[in-house]
Design a protein that fits this description.
Blueprint (H helix, E strand, L loop, with lengths): L6 E3 L3 E4 L3 E3 L2 H21 L1 H6 L2 E6 L2 E7 L13 H17 L3 E11 L9 E11 L3 E9 L5 E15 H5 L5
Length: about 180
């Protein structure tokens, strides 16, 4: 298991990424399978993410890692990656992580800072982590880094969790 895998925490509970406590390995496996199903569906169905070439690397409840390679078409007038491309990558990681619990989550705020730039040929990796989760909202921190692990962007977003399930969308019950 990788560093984001669940680890044992006293009293017979397992702690998953995003601070989710589950009673046993079967519950953990079910939540992980749900997260992966949702993540793969979002990767397939998000047309803008597909257009940019965003690839899902990892997903777990409250966690997501995605990447893309910067192409010449993604550069702004001064030859660096357009901020909208970096924002879109972070936003997709945010979307997958926040929907990974199974309830439909929609952004209500998002903010980004760009401490460094990237260029054509760079591989960008966005990693979303759940900072706080309540029944109706969630707060996420997303870091975008290059292959040298330099911080390119820091994105913070808040979601509102609706009452509908993501599986209803996957199964075609919502349009």
């Amino acid at each position: 298991m990788n560093r984001h895998a669940a680890e044992q925490r006293g009293a017979g509970f397992l702690l998953m990424p995003g601070g989710i406590h589950v009673k046993n390995a079967a519950d953990m496996a079910d939540l992980q399978k749900l997260s992966e199903t949702i993540g793969r569906w979002m990767e397939r169905e998000d047309r803008f993410a597909r257009l940019l070439g965003i690839q899902l690397q990892q997903v777990a409840p409250g966690y997501c890692q995605v990447s893309l390679e910067v192409t010449d078409d993604m550069l702004n007038a001064v030859g660096i990656t357009h901020g909208g491309v970096t924002f879109a990558l972070a936003d997709f990681a945010f979307a997958v992580a926040s929907n990974s619990h199974g309830k439909t989550a929609v952004a209500i705020t998002a903010q980004i800072n760009y401490p460094s730039a990237s260029r054509a040929g760079d591989r960008l990796v966005a990693e979303a982590r759940e900072a706080n989760k309540t029944g109706r909202t969630g707060l996420y921190n997303i870091e975008v880094r290059n292959a040298e692990s330099a911080l390119l962007a820091l994105f913070t977003g808040t979601v509102y969790r609706r009452s509908d399930d993501v599986m209803d969308w996957i199964n075609g019950e919502k349009t």
